[in-house]
Amino acid sequence: MIPTLTQTFDIVFIDADKRNYALYFDLIIDKVKKGGLIITDNVLWSGKVVMPENEMDVDTKAIHDFNKKVNDDKRVTNLLLPVRDGLMLMMKN
């Protein structure tokens, strides 16, 4: 469904299956206006994202990898808010 959207967005909220967070980010980044926000929920995953990688379950590893991806992506400036289970705020550059 996302690839068929033709609109551009000021804000996008991602809170879905954790294994596909990076995919959802890739699908919407070009649909977000410059200065727009992408907000992702559960990026701390009950603190499990800081465990040794070899001890992470599949969902935890996916969120961990997503957090690294966003941090390295020059298209966005990000801020991780340690509120409840973690919110990642990304502003498109």
Write structural notes for this entry.
The protein is built from two helices and four strands. 25% of the residues lie in helices and 30% in strands. It starts with 8 loop residues before the first strand and ends with a strand. It is α+β, with helices and mostly antiparallel strands and 93 residues long. It has a four-stranded mixed sheet, with helices on one face. The protein has a single domain, classed as Vaccinia Virus protein VP39 (Rossmann fold), CATH 3.40.50.150. A hairpin with a 5-residue loop joins strand 3 and strand 4 (87-92).
Keywords, please?
93 residues; alpha+beta; Rossmann fold; four-stranded mixed sheet
* First and last CA, distance: 25 Å
Cα-based radius of gyration, to the nearest Å: 13 Å
Gross morphology is: globular
The largest sheet is: 4 strands, mixed
Judged by helices, strands and strand pairing, the structural class is: alpha+beta
Q: How many DSSP helices?
A: 2
Q: Helices and strands in order, then pairings?
A:
Layout: E1 9-14, H1 21-28, E2 32-41, H2 58-72, E3 76-81, E4 87-92
Parallel strand pairs: 1-2
Antiparallel strand pairs: 2-4, 3-4
